Amino acid sequence: MSSLNLAGVSLHYGPEQTGLPVLQNVSLNLARGEFISVIGRSGSGKTSLLNLAGGFVAPSAGRVTVDGKPVTGPGPDRAVVFQDDALYPWRSVRDNVALPLKLRGIDAATRAEKAREWLAAVGLQDHQDKHVWQLSGGQRQRVGLARALASEPEFLLMDEPLGALDAMTRDQMHELLLSLWEESHAGALLITHSVEEAVFLSTSVIVLAPTPGRIVHREEFEFGRRYLEGEDPRALKSEPEFIDARERLLAAIYEKELVDG
Ligand SMILES: Nc1ncnc2c1ncn2[C@@H]1O[C@H](COP(=O)(O)OP(=O)(O)OP(=O)(O)O)[C@@H](O)[C@H]1O
């Protein structure tokens, strides 16, 4: 089973490397088929952690590897989705999904097939010829997901992808995200400010505390898997276990005394 691993990773920005590190001695392992969310206060290093996993920055200490091989930069095995969907507004929905495949030298017929397949998976089969500027925020994020998944990455790295959406669209996106995660067999790493989102979606939630950014709490959950097995999402989110988990994680975010369990 393929895995993305951070082992004893620390990160300082800048050449001087003075002061406290942004991340200190962070270790985590993301296997395909797992869904890890990272939560924590502003400035705790969540985006920095995703940037390390994506290969956009290199660690100051420790190792980032995929299947034991050092990560030296971004790669097609790790697709990234940002809050700002980073689409080309003047291009068609289909072209936005197919473009990264074109850049990788994949032939036109395969590109068209993959774009069709993943746009159908996110429910946008009837919008392929529209321009991105004609879509709603939720639809644009679905294009971003289709684009990331069309490359069939082993790992899907997401930085607050749903942060700009209204609550109802966000709930729908949770259910879609779980289905896509199951269908793609990717390992998912999600940065989010929503504790509820983390508890519902993840097989594992990591809490970072700031200054220096470090892991102070980890927990495993099965709510997402239970949704995929057919349980009602609203009923799951109302369960006492769900509410207790949410409160525990909020306490872990705001109380420094709670340490890794
Ligand atoms: N490119 C950079 N150069 C220098 N410092 C940076 C850079 N990116 C982030 N930082 C600093 O690193 C720390 C962690 O930032 P990061 O964006 O990783 O945190 P975060 O938990 O994602 O925050 P937020 O929840 O506000 O998005 C902050 O103090 C930030 O100012």
Automatic annotation (TrEMBL):
Tell me the keywords, alphabetical order: ATP-binding, Cell inner membrane, Cell membrane, Membrane, Nucleotide-binding, Translocase, Transport
Pfam families of this UniProt entry? ABC_tran (PF00005)
Q: In what residue span(s) does the ABC transporter domain sit?
A: 4-235
SMART domains in alphabetical order = AAA
The record's PANTHER family line, in alphabetical order, gives: TAURINE IMPORT ATP-BINDING PROTEIN TAUB (PTHR42788:SF18), TAURINE IMPORT ATP-BINDING PROTEIN-RELATED (PTHR42788)
What family classification does the UniProt entry report for this protein?
Belongs to the ABC transporter superfamily.
User: What name is this protein filed under?
Assistant: ATP-binding cassette domain-containing protein
Q: Which organism is it from?
A: Paracoccus caeni
